[in-house]
Amino acid sequence: MYHDSAIYGRGVWNEATKDFDYTFKTLAFPCRDDSSAADCKIAASPDGNTVWVSVLTNPDGTTPLIDSTYFPVLRKSTDGGLNWSDQIVIQLDGPNGIQAVLNQYSEYFIMNFFTGPPWPWRDEIPYTTAFDHSLSVDKWGNLHIGVAIGYAPGGYAISTGIDSLINVFDIYICKNGVSYHGVFLGPLKTFRGTWGTTSSDNRVYTSRTKTGDKIFFTWNDTHVDGEINNQHPDVFARGFDLISNDLTSVNGGDGPNIVTSLSNINQEAYWQCTSPIVFSDNNKYTIPVCTQWFTTPTGETQFKYISDFSFKDSDFTITTPVYSWLCDIGIEQHTSEIDPVTVYPNPVEDIVKISLILTHNAFVSVDITNLIGKRLISLNKGTMNAGSQQISIDASNLSAGIYFVTVRLNGQIFTRKLIVE
Protein backbone atom coordinates (compact mmCIF):
# COMPACT_ATOMS: atom_id res chain seq x y z
CA MET A 1 0.00 0.00 0.00
CA TYR A 2 1.30 3.46 -0.89
CA HIS A 3 1.97 5.79 2.06
CA ASP A 4 2.86 9.17 0.51
CA SER A 5 6.57 8.38 -0.02
CA ALA A 6 8.91 6.60 -2.40
CA ILE A 7 11.86 4.63 -1.01
CA TYR A 8 15.09 4.98 -2.96
CA GLY A 9 18.61 3.65 -2.52
CA ARG A 10 21.85 5.48 -3.27
CA GLY A 11 25.00 3.44 -3.78
CA VAL A 12 28.60 4.64 -3.46
CA TRP A 13 31.38 2.41 -4.77
CA ASN A 14 33.65 1.00 -2.05
CA GLU A 15 37.01 0.20 -3.54
CA ALA A 16 38.07 -1.87 -0.51
CA THR A 17 35.10 -4.24 -0.66
CA LYS A 18 34.64 -3.96 -4.45
CA ASP A 19 30.95 -3.36 -3.88
CA PHE A 20 28.47 -0.54 -3.42
CA ASP A 21 27.61 0.83 0.01
CA TYR A 22 23.90 1.60 -0.04
CA THR A 23 21.85 4.02 2.00
CA PHE A 24 18.07 4.04 1.73
CA LYS A 25 15.85 7.06 2.24
CA THR A 26 12.26 8.13 1.64
CA LEU A 27 11.21 10.86 -0.74
CA ALA A 28 7.82 12.47 -0.09
CA PHE A 29 5.16 12.25 -2.83
CA PRO A 30 1.88 12.98 -1.01
CA CYS A 31 -1.35 12.11 -2.80
CA ARG A 32 -5.07 12.20 -2.11
CA ASP A 33 -5.41 8.64 -0.85
CA ASP A 34 -3.71 5.24 -0.99
CA SER A 35 -5.34 4.39 -4.34
CA SER A 36 -4.25 7.50 -6.22
CA ALA A 37 -0.60 6.55 -6.90
CA ALA A 38 -0.26 4.28 -9.92
CA ASP A 39 3.46 3.98 -10.67
CA CYS A 40 6.90 5.21 -9.57
CA LYS A 41 10.07 5.33 -11.69
CA ILE A 42 13.61 6.72 -11.38
CA ALA A 43 16.26 7.50 -14.02
CA ALA A 44 19.64 9.25 -14.19
CA SER A 45 21.58 11.18 -16.82
CA PRO A 46 24.60 9.58 -18.53
CA ASP A 47 27.00 11.25 -16.07
CA GLY A 48 24.90 10.15 -13.07
CA ASN A 49 24.58 13.65 -11.63
CA THR A 50 21.01 14.50 -12.68
CA VAL A 51 18.39 12.13 -11.28
CA TRP A 52 14.63 12.34 -11.74
CA VAL A 53 11.91 10.49 -9.84
CA SER A 54 8.38 10.45 -11.25
CA VAL A 55 5.17 9.21 -9.64
CA LEU A 56 1.88 8.95 -11.52
CA THR A 57 -0.42 10.34 -8.85
CA ASN A 58 -2.80 13.17 -7.94
CA PRO A 59 -1.71 15.33 -4.98
CA ASP A 60 -3.95 17.81 -3.21
CA GLY A 61 -3.68 21.39 -4.42
CA THR A 62 -3.21 20.55 -8.09
CA THR A 63 -5.66 21.57 -10.79
CA PRO A 64 -6.60 18.77 -13.20
CA LEU A 65 -10.02 19.11 -14.78
CA ILE A 66 -11.31 16.23 -12.66
CA ASP A 67 -9.81 15.04 -9.39
CA SER A 68 -9.55 11.32 -10.07
CA THR A 69 -6.86 11.30 -12.77
CA TYR A 70 -3.17 10.40 -12.95
CA PHE A 71 -0.40 12.73 -14.09
CA PRO A 72 3.37 12.90 -13.51
CA VAL A 73 4.63 14.48 -10.31
CA LEU A 74 8.41 14.88 -10.30
CA ARG A 75 11.36 15.55 -8.06
CA LYS A 76 14.86 16.26 -9.37
CA SER A 77 18.38 15.98 -7.99
CA THR A 78 21.45 17.55 -9.60
CA ASP A 79 23.98 16.02 -7.20
CA GLY A 80 23.43 12.31 -7.73
CA GLY A 81 20.52 11.96 -5.29
CA LEU A 82 21.87 13.81 -2.24
CA ASN A 83 19.40 16.69 -2.42
CA TRP A 84 16.04 16.98 -4.13
CA SER A 85 13.84 19.71 -5.56
CA ASP A 86 10.32 20.41 -4.42
CA GLN A 87 7.54 18.62 -6.28
CA ILE A 88 7.06 19.54 -9.94
CA VAL A 89 3.53 18.85 -11.17
CA ILE A 90 2.97 18.24 -14.88
CA GLN A 91 -0.44 19.50 -15.99
CA LEU A 92 -1.87 17.40 -18.84
CA ASP A 93 -5.21 19.14 -19.41
CA GLY A 94 -6.99 22.45 -18.91
CA PRO A 95 -5.88 25.90 -20.13
CA ASN A 96 -2.32 25.23 -18.94
CA GLY A 97 -2.20 21.69 -20.29
CA ILE A 98 0.33 20.26 -22.73
CA GLN A 99 -0.48 21.60 -26.19
CA ALA A 100 0.41 18.37 -28.01
CA VAL A 101 -2.07 16.49 -25.80
CA LEU A 102 -4.80 19.12 -26.14
CA ASN A 103 -4.44 19.28 -29.92
CA GLN A 104 -4.14 15.55 -30.68
CA TYR A 105 -7.87 14.84 -31.01
CA SER A 106 -9.15 16.15 -34.33
CA GLU A 107 -12.34 18.20 -34.50
CA TYR A 108 -13.94 15.30 -36.36
CA PHE A 109 -12.99 12.92 -33.53
CA ILE A 110 -14.31 15.29 -30.85
CA MET A 111 -17.63 15.74 -32.65
CA ASN A 112 -18.07 11.97 -33.05
CA PHE A 113 -16.86 10.83 -29.62
CA PHE A 114 -18.33 13.46 -27.28
CA THR A 115 -21.96 14.45 -26.85
CA GLY A 116 -22.94 17.74 -28.45
CA PRO A 117 -23.56 20.32 -29.58
CA PRO A 118 -22.05 22.13 -27.87
CA TRP A 119 -18.91 20.01 -28.04
CA PRO A 120 -16.15 20.53 -25.48
CA TRP A 121 -13.25 22.83 -26.21
CA ARG A 122 -9.89 21.14 -26.26
CA ASP A 123 -8.97 22.57 -22.86
CA GLU A 124 -12.25 21.23 -21.41
CA ILE A 125 -11.43 17.55 -22.10
CA PRO A 126 -9.96 15.74 -19.05
CA TYR A 127 -6.93 13.52 -19.62
CA THR A 128 -5.11 10.89 -17.62
CA THR A 129 -2.00 8.86 -18.11
CA ALA A 130 -2.17 5.09 -18.25
CA PHE A 131 -1.16 3.17 -15.14
CA ASP A 132 2.50 2.75 -16.06
CA HIS A 133 5.25 4.94 -17.50
CA SER A 134 9.00 4.89 -18.09
CA LEU A 135 11.78 7.46 -17.85
CA SER A 136 15.03 8.35 -19.54
CA VAL A 137 17.34 11.32 -18.95
CA ASP A 138 19.26 12.80 -21.87
CA LYS A 139 22.82 14.17 -21.96
CA TRP A 140 21.59 17.65 -20.98
CA GLY A 141 19.80 16.37 -17.87
CA ASN A 142 16.31 16.72 -19.40
CA LEU A 143 13.69 14.12 -18.54
CA HIS A 144 11.73 12.12 -21.12
CA ILE A 145 8.59 10.30 -19.97
CA GLY A 146 7.24 7.60 -22.27
CA VAL A 147 3.55 7.22 -21.48
CA ALA A 148 0.11 6.59 -22.97
CA ILE A 149 -2.41 9.42 -22.43
CA GLY A 150 -6.13 9.36 -23.09
CA TYR A 151 -9.56 10.66 -22.17
CA ALA A 152 -10.36 10.38 -18.47
CA PRO A 153 -13.94 9.37 -17.62
CA GLY A 154 -13.09 9.61 -13.90
CA GLY A 155 -12.35 7.18 -11.10
CA TYR A 156 -8.64 6.83 -11.96
CA ALA A 157 -9.55 5.11 -15.22
CA ILE A 158 -8.58 5.61 -18.84
CA SER A 159 -11.25 5.24 -21.51
CA THR A 160 -10.49 2.39 -23.92
CA GLY A 161 -11.91 0.48 -26.88
CA ILE A 162 -11.75 3.17 -29.57
CA ASP A 163 -8.94 3.62 -32.10
CA SER A 164 -6.76 6.69 -31.33
CA LEU A 165 -8.61 7.55 -28.11
CA ILE A 166 -5.29 6.83 -26.34
CA ASN A 167 -2.00 8.13 -27.75
CA VAL A 168 1.67 7.57 -26.94
CA PHE A 169 3.74 10.64 -26.03
CA ASP A 170 7.19 11.65 -24.96
CA ILE A 171 6.59 14.19 -22.20
CA TYR A 172 9.78 16.22 -22.53
CA ILE A 173 10.80 18.06 -19.32
CA CYS A 174 13.55 20.68 -19.40
CA LYS A 175 14.78 23.85 -17.69
CA ASN A 176 14.44 22.22 -14.24
CA GLY A 177 10.78 21.47 -14.88
CA VAL A 178 9.84 25.05 -15.79
CA SER A 179 9.32 24.02 -19.42
CA TYR A 180 7.60 20.82 -20.53
CA HIS A 181 6.24 19.70 -23.88
CA GLY A 182 4.56 16.75 -25.53
CA VAL A 183 5.98 14.90 -28.53
CA PHE A 184 3.34 12.72 -30.21
CA LEU A 185 4.78 9.28 -31.05
CA GLY A 186 1.76 7.36 -32.34
CA PRO A 187 -1.87 6.38 -31.66
CA LEU A 188 -3.00 3.20 -29.93
CA LYS A 189 -5.67 1.18 -31.67
CA THR A 190 -6.01 -1.03 -28.56
CA PHE A 191 -4.89 -0.75 -24.96
CA ARG A 192 -5.80 -3.74 -22.81
CA GLY A 193 -5.39 -7.41 -23.70
CA THR A 194 -7.65 -9.93 -21.96
CA TRP A 195 -7.23 -13.70 -21.98
CA GLY A 196 -9.93 -15.33 -19.86
CA THR A 197 -9.58 -13.84 -16.38
CA THR A 198 -6.07 -12.48 -17.09
CA SER A 199 -5.52 -9.02 -18.55
CA SER A 200 -2.63 -6.65 -19.12
CA ASP A 201 -2.46 -2.99 -20.11
CA ASN A 202 -0.10 -1.48 -22.61
CA ARG A 203 3.24 -0.24 -21.28
CA VAL A 204 5.62 2.21 -22.92
CA TYR A 205 9.36 1.66 -22.44
CA THR A 206 11.96 4.41 -22.87
CA SER A 207 15.61 3.94 -23.86
CA ARG A 208 18.52 6.14 -24.94
CA THR A 209 21.92 5.99 -26.53
CA LYS A 210 24.82 5.77 -24.10
CA THR A 211 25.64 9.41 -24.81
CA GLY A 212 22.01 10.45 -24.33
CA ASP A 213 21.46 12.40 -27.56
CA LYS A 214 18.79 10.05 -28.95
CA ILE A 215 15.75 8.61 -27.16
CA PHE A 216 13.78 5.50 -28.21
CA PHE A 217 10.32 4.24 -27.26
CA THR A 218 8.61 0.85 -27.57
CA TRP A 219 5.06 -0.33 -26.87
CA ASN A 220 2.56 -3.06 -27.78
CA ASP A 221 -0.48 -2.64 -29.98
CA THR A 222 -2.83 -4.83 -32.04
CA HIS A 223 -3.36 -3.67 -35.62
CA VAL A 224 -6.03 -6.12 -36.73
CA ASP A 225 -9.13 -4.77 -38.47
CA GLY A 226 -12.11 -4.73 -36.11
CA GLU A 227 -10.06 -5.78 -33.06
CA ILE A 228 -10.51 -3.60 -29.95
CA ASN A 229 -8.81 -6.03 -27.54
CA ASN A 230 -5.01 -6.08 -27.49
CA GLN A 231 -4.91 -9.88 -27.90
CA HIS A 232 -2.78 -10.02 -31.05
CA PRO A 233 -0.04 -7.53 -30.25
CA ASP A 234 3.11 -6.56 -32.06
CA VAL A 235 5.89 -4.39 -30.67
CA PHE A 236 6.13 -0.87 -32.09
CA ALA A 237 9.16 1.41 -31.84
CA ARG A 238 10.08 5.02 -32.54
CA GLY A 239 13.25 7.07 -32.13
CA PHE A 240 13.74 10.78 -31.38
CA ASP A 241 16.95 12.62 -32.32
CA LEU A 242 17.27 15.43 -29.78
CA ILE A 243 19.79 17.45 -31.79
CA SER A 244 18.05 17.46 -35.18
CA ASN A 245 14.58 17.25 -33.54
CA ASP A 246 13.54 14.52 -35.97
CA LEU A 247 11.49 11.40 -35.29
CA THR A 248 12.01 8.13 -37.12
CA SER A 249 9.69 7.35 -40.02
CA VAL A 250 8.21 4.14 -41.42
CA ASN A 251 8.76 3.86 -45.17
CA GLY A 252 9.12 7.63 -45.21
CA GLY A 253 5.76 8.16 -43.46
CA ASP A 254 4.99 9.63 -40.06
CA GLY A 255 4.55 6.74 -37.62
CA PRO A 256 6.21 3.99 -35.58
CA ASN A 257 7.86 0.88 -36.98
CA ILE A 258 6.57 -2.63 -36.25
CA VAL A 259 9.44 -4.49 -34.58
CA THR A 260 7.91 -7.99 -34.68
CA SER A 261 6.15 -7.96 -38.08
CA LEU A 262 8.55 -10.43 -39.72
CA SER A 263 9.42 -12.46 -36.62
CA ASN A 264 8.07 -15.79 -35.38
CA ILE A 265 5.92 -13.92 -32.84
CA ASN A 266 4.10 -11.74 -35.36
CA GLN A 267 0.89 -10.64 -33.56
CA GLU A 268 1.93 -12.80 -30.58
CA ALA A 269 4.31 -10.47 -28.69
CA TYR A 270 2.09 -10.42 -25.62
CA TRP A 271 4.32 -8.38 -23.33
CA GLN A 272 7.54 -6.57 -24.03
CA CYS A 273 10.29 -4.64 -22.29
CA THR A 274 13.27 -2.73 -23.62
CA SER A 275 16.75 -2.12 -22.21
CA PRO A 276 17.30 1.44 -20.91
CA ILE A 277 20.40 1.68 -23.15
CA VAL A 278 20.49 0.84 -26.86
CA PHE A 279 23.48 -0.49 -28.80
CA SER A 280 25.17 2.17 -30.95
CA ASP A 281 27.55 1.23 -33.74
CA ASN A 282 28.54 3.42 -36.69
CA ASN A 283 25.27 5.40 -36.86
CA LYS A 284 23.19 2.27 -36.28
CA TYR A 285 21.03 1.94 -33.15
CA THR A 286 19.92 -1.56 -32.19
CA ILE A 287 16.96 -1.69 -29.79
CA PRO A 288 17.18 -4.62 -27.30
CA VAL A 289 13.58 -5.83 -26.96
CA CYS A 290 12.47 -8.85 -24.93
CA THR A 291 8.96 -10.26 -25.40
CA GLN A 292 6.79 -12.96 -23.83
CA TRP A 293 4.99 -15.64 -25.79
CA PHE A 294 2.46 -18.17 -24.52
CA THR A 295 -0.38 -20.38 -25.67
CA THR A 296 -2.26 -19.49 -22.50
CA PRO A 297 -1.24 -16.88 -19.90
CA THR A 298 -1.67 -19.40 -17.06
CA GLY A 299 0.59 -21.94 -18.78
CA GLU A 300 4.21 -22.01 -19.83
CA THR A 301 5.73 -18.71 -20.95
CA GLN A 302 8.68 -18.31 -23.31
CA PHE A 303 10.84 -15.20 -23.35
CA LYS A 304 11.96 -14.25 -26.84
CA TYR A 305 14.65 -11.66 -27.54
CA ILE A 306 14.40 -9.49 -30.65
CA SER A 307 18.09 -9.15 -31.46
CA ASP A 308 18.18 -7.44 -34.83
CA PHE A 309 15.80 -4.47 -34.87
CA SER A 310 17.61 -1.18 -35.45
CA PHE A 311 17.31 2.38 -36.69
CA LYS A 312 19.87 4.27 -38.79
CA ASP A 313 20.55 8.00 -38.88
CA SER A 314 18.79 8.13 -42.25
CA ASP A 315 15.55 6.92 -40.58
CA PHE A 316 15.15 10.19 -38.61
CA THR A 317 13.16 12.20 -41.17
CA ILE A 318 9.98 13.48 -39.45
CA THR A 319 10.50 17.00 -38.12
CA THR A 320 9.01 17.88 -34.73
CA PRO A 321 8.57 21.29 -33.10
CA VAL A 322 11.96 22.61 -32.08
CA TYR A 323 11.99 21.51 -28.44
CA SER A 324 15.77 21.50 -28.17
CA TRP A 325 15.68 25.21 -28.94
CA LEU A 326 13.18 25.75 -26.13
CA CYS A 327 15.37 23.64 -23.84
CA ASP A 328 18.67 25.34 -24.79
CA ILE A 329 20.16 22.30 -26.51
CA GLY A 330 20.86 21.28 -30.07
CA ILE A 331 21.46 23.42 -33.15
CA GLU A 332 20.84 27.15 -32.84
CA GLN A 333 19.90 27.70 -36.49
CA HIS A 334 16.68 25.75 -35.86
CA THR A 335 15.33 28.76 -33.97
CA SER A 336 14.10 30.24 -37.22
CA GLU A 337 11.97 27.17 -37.99
CA ILE A 338 9.53 27.33 -35.07
CA ASP A 339 6.23 29.16 -35.41
CA PRO A 340 5.67 30.92 -32.06
CA VAL A 341 2.03 31.87 -32.80
CA THR A 342 -0.79 29.46 -33.72
CA VAL A 343 -4.47 30.46 -34.06
CA TYR A 344 -7.16 27.76 -33.78
CA PRO A 345 -9.80 26.61 -34.45
CA ASN A 346 -9.80 28.33 -37.80
CA PRO A 347 -12.52 28.81 -39.05
CA VAL A 348 -14.11 29.69 -35.69
CA GLU A 349 -17.64 30.35 -34.49
CA ASP A 350 -17.11 31.67 -30.98
CA ILE A 351 -13.94 31.11 -28.91
CA VAL A 352 -10.63 31.45 -30.76
CA LYS A 353 -7.46 30.29 -29.04
CA ILE A 354 -3.99 31.70 -29.60
CA SER A 355 -1.15 29.34 -28.71
CA LEU A 356 2.21 30.98 -27.98
CA ILE A 357 5.65 29.44 -27.60
CA LEU A 358 7.85 31.96 -25.77
CA THR A 359 11.59 31.44 -25.49
CA HIS A 360 11.81 34.21 -22.88
CA ASN A 361 9.41 36.21 -20.74
CA ALA A 362 7.61 38.54 -23.15
CA PHE A 363 5.25 41.51 -23.13
CA VAL A 364 2.24 40.29 -25.12
CA SER A 365 -0.61 42.15 -26.79
CA VAL A 366 -3.25 40.92 -29.26
CA ASP A 367 -5.40 42.85 -31.74
CA ILE A 368 -8.13 41.55 -34.06
CA THR A 369 -8.81 43.82 -37.03
CA ASN A 370 -11.07 43.67 -40.09
CA LEU A 371 -9.95 43.83 -43.72
CA ILE A 372 -9.72 47.64 -43.71
CA GLY A 373 -7.61 47.66 -40.55
CA LYS A 374 -10.26 48.70 -38.02
CA ARG A 375 -9.36 47.38 -34.56
CA LEU A 376 -12.32 45.39 -33.17
CA ILE A 377 -10.76 43.54 -30.23
CA SER A 378 -7.65 44.56 -28.29
CA LEU A 379 -5.99 42.74 -25.38
CA ASN A 380 -2.95 43.72 -23.35
CA LYS A 381 -1.75 40.58 -21.54
CA GLY A 382 1.27 42.22 -19.92
CA THR A 383 4.34 40.08 -19.30
CA MET A 384 3.84 36.35 -19.88
CA ASN A 385 6.30 33.70 -18.72
CA ALA A 386 8.53 31.71 -21.05
CA GLY A 387 7.16 28.39 -22.29
CA SER A 388 3.86 27.34 -23.85
CA GLN A 389 1.03 29.83 -23.22
CA GLN A 390 -2.53 30.16 -24.45
CA ILE A 391 -4.92 33.09 -24.86
CA SER A 392 -8.68 32.66 -25.41
CA ILE A 393 -10.77 35.35 -27.12
CA ASP A 394 -14.56 35.44 -27.59
CA ALA A 395 -15.16 36.09 -31.29
CA SER A 396 -18.89 35.32 -31.20
CA ASN A 397 -19.82 39.01 -31.66
CA LEU A 398 -17.86 39.25 -34.91
CA SER A 399 -19.81 38.94 -38.17
CA ALA A 400 -18.96 36.10 -40.51
CA GLY A 401 -15.94 37.03 -42.61
CA ILE A 402 -12.16 37.37 -42.72
CA TYR A 403 -10.14 39.10 -40.00
CA PHE A 404 -6.53 39.44 -38.95
CA VAL A 405 -5.04 38.49 -35.58
CA THR A 406 -1.93 40.54 -34.75
CA VAL A 407 0.24 39.39 -31.86
CA ARG A 408 3.08 41.52 -30.51
CA LEU A 409 5.82 39.78 -28.52
CA ASN A 410 8.25 42.32 -27.06
CA GLY A 411 7.55 44.49 -30.11
CA GLN A 412 7.96 41.69 -32.68
CA ILE A 413 4.79 41.43 -34.79
CA PHE A 414 3.08 38.22 -35.98
CA THR A 415 -0.10 38.39 -38.10
CA ARG A 416 -2.42 35.47 -38.80
CA LYS A 417 -5.62 35.34 -40.90
CA LEU A 418 -8.79 34.35 -39.02
CA ILE A 419 -12.05 33.17 -40.62
CA VAL A 420 -15.25 33.64 -38.61
CA GLU A 421 -18.26 31.54 -39.61
Q: If you consult CATH, what is the topology of the largest domain?
A: Neuraminidase
| Number of distinct beta strands | 33
**Model regions low in confidence, pLDDT < 50 over at least 5 residues:** 331-337
Number of helices: 3
Overall SS class: mainly beta
Tally of domains: 2
Largest beta sheet, briefly?
7 strands, antiparallel
CATH architecture of the largest domain: 6 Propeller
**Beta-strand proportion:** over 45%
Question: What is the rounded Rg?
Answer: 23 Å
Q: Tell me, rounded to a whole number, the average pLDDT.
A: 88
Helical content band: under 10%
Shape: globular
Distance between the termini: 54 Å
CATH classification, class level of the largest domain:
Mainly Beta
How would you characterize the overall build of this protein?
This protein is mainly beta. The chain has two domains: 32-332, 6 Propeller (Neuraminidase), CATH 2.120.10; 339-420, Macroglobulin (MG2) domain (Immunoglobulin-like, Sandwich). Helix content is 4%, strand content 48%. The chain has helices at 99-102, 107-113, 323-326; strands at residues 5-14, 19-28, 37-44, 51-57, 71-77, 88-89, 127-129, 134-137, 143-151, 166-174, 179-188, 192-195, 198-201, 205-208, 214-221, 234-241, 246-250, 253-254, 257-258, 271-274, 279-280, 284-286, 289-294, 301-306, 310-312, 316-319, 341-344, 351-358, 362-369, 375-384, 387-394, 401-409, 412-420. A hairpin with a 6-residue loop joins β23 (289-294) and β24. Residues 331-337 have low confidence and may be disordered.
